[in-house]
Amino acid sequence: MPNPTAAMLVIGDEILSGRTRDSNMHFLAGELTKHGIDLKEARFVSDDAEAIETAVKALSQAYDHVFTSGGIGPTHDDITADAIAHAFGVGIGIREDARALLEAHYEKTGLELNAARLRMARIPDVATLIENPVSTAPGFTLGNVHVMAGVPVVFQAMVASVLPTLTGGAPLLSQTLRVERGEGDIAETLSLLAEAFDDLSIGCYPFQVNGVFGANVVVRGTDGARIDAAITRLAKELGV
Amino acid sequence: MPNPTAAMLVIGDEILSGRTRDSNMHFLAGELTKHGIDLKEARFVSDDAEAIETAVKALSQAYDHVFTSGGIGPTHDDITADAIAHAFGVGIGIREDARALLEAHYEKTGLELNAARLRMARIPDVATLIENPVSTAPGFTLGNVHVMAGVPVVFQAMVASVLPTLTGGAPLLSQTLRVERGEGDIAETLSLLAEAFDDLSIGCYPFQVNGVFGANVVVRGTDGARIDAAITRLAKELGV
């Protein structure tokens, strides 16, 4: 059975303007790979309701899971929850379960649960909450869409909350062979290898560090023995 | 007149599998911002011809410019040029101008211009070349799509080649106010500010470093005086 598929949707002007370099996609990619879910696509859009809705609908239809990051805080530019509820035609309002979490949290910290903070309890009607052990305000899952915070430490904690609830497949395994020759010298060998092992994915990534140049050949797949066989053959053919 | 719009398409299994963390999008975002071109969307797809074609067609129609990175090297997994030619129904083959560049380069370096390396001279018929001062093998522009290498140092050099040829708009300016208070405390003030300055984009990005928590408020726009006015009002209202 093929692995479940996934897409990621990163929401935020700060990333598209170049102010902030996203790290959530790279983190999620690694976690999904370990969990046997294949990340097939990622999209980055700005804090714009129509852009969010269009993207989340397209991705939700095309893949088994969609993971979003960003736009669920207390400020005016945090519009993700409303946009996603609207995209799926679901009602949204202050949810009592989310409010209770926030009340307990702010009582402990001595901060006021004002109107802005209460916005973080706006959750689509039929969604289930995603636990946030870092700062309490929850994410949520609506259908196959998992909506999480953009702050990396919170995003990572939410991924850790939601991933064990999802059925994974075979983890994607990989082995890398470092070859100190130009890509162009090994390309034909790789091409024949890719034909012989068409159940594996074989990538070639050139590097140039301190005057040494070469390529890392990465063989990926779910069958460790096949990957071993491909790497062994490649090392022999290239005399590495 | 509004600024030209742009999208980016990042191509490569190595990024979606979590092996490599992309840096080209963050670099391009910063360069476009300086050049007055608004990056509206980015997509990441794997080394899959159909995925590349679908994405590049959608983005080419929706935005003034599309910038791609990845998949134009000499190995079997480098399929970007062919996929993009196919997407636009344009022929592709070894182009003599590109071949001449590679011949001169490999003669100088003493490496063989073999069949694999010659693949890097496969350029769509009506495309114009993008200069690559780092490693010679060119990128290309086809219509409004600018196709560039994935290796960051080469990607950056190609962006430097192509960007001056594109008409930019007003550079996006920004100022940041650091506020050592929780987002929830300043959210209402920000919301009113965003209403009063609806020609500007006002974002709020929480941080927590060494026990100090707060938020960076970023005001973006093309009119420096308006940004000044917004930041001044905000600082006064928050007593910063």
From TrEMBL, chains A, B:
Domain MoaB/Mog: 7-170
Pfam family membership, one: MoCF_biosynth
Cited SUPFAM superfamilies: Molybdenum cofactor biosynthesis proteins
Record SMART domains: MoCF_biosynth (SM00852)
Record-linked InterPro entries: CinA, FLAD1_M, MoaB/Mog-like_dom_sf, MoaB/Mog_dom
The protein's name in its UniProt record: Molybdopterin-binding protein
Protein source organism: Ruegeria marisrubri
